[in-house]
Design goal:
With 111 residues, the chain is mostly helical. The chain has a domain of 36 residues. It contains four helices and no strands. The longest helix is centred in the N-terminal third of the chain and has 25 residues.
Length: 111
């Protein structure tokens, strides 16, 4: 049944066409007997979209939030991160002087 059309022989294709015609004629006969019942069985009717009220959405949202709160549990609030220590003016000046000296040496070493 998983054969492609290219791999089928001419006889097999003709037999398939005859079967298809026979199925079509039988479906027409069924349609004549039951009305359009045969047609409705092959094509499903589209479902109506369900519109949820705002109140129902709010209830579902509240329940979901309640479940997540239970899962997460009540954890103590994380302590605020420590404030970064500020460098004193003297330390900044000392570091600046060291870097200037290092850059001067590097510049002098360049050919």
């Amino acid at each position: 049944m998983n054969k492609s059309l290219g791999s089928l022989s001419v006889q097999q294709l003709l037999a398939a066409a005859k079967l298809k015609e026979k199925i079509h004629s039988l479906e027409k006969k069924l349609e004549g007997i039951f009305g359009s019942a045969g047609e409705s069985a092959s094509t499903p009717t589209p479902k109506k979209k369900f519109k949820m009220s705002a109140a129902a959405r709010a209830k579902i949202s509240a329940a979901a939030k309640k479940r997540w709160a239970k899962v997460k549990g009540t954890k103590p609030a994380a302590a605020a991160p420590k404030a970064r220590r500020k460098m004193s003016a003297a330390a900044k000046a000392k570091l600046s002087a060291k870097l200037k000296l290092a850059w001067a040496r590097r510049k002098a070493a360049k050919p």
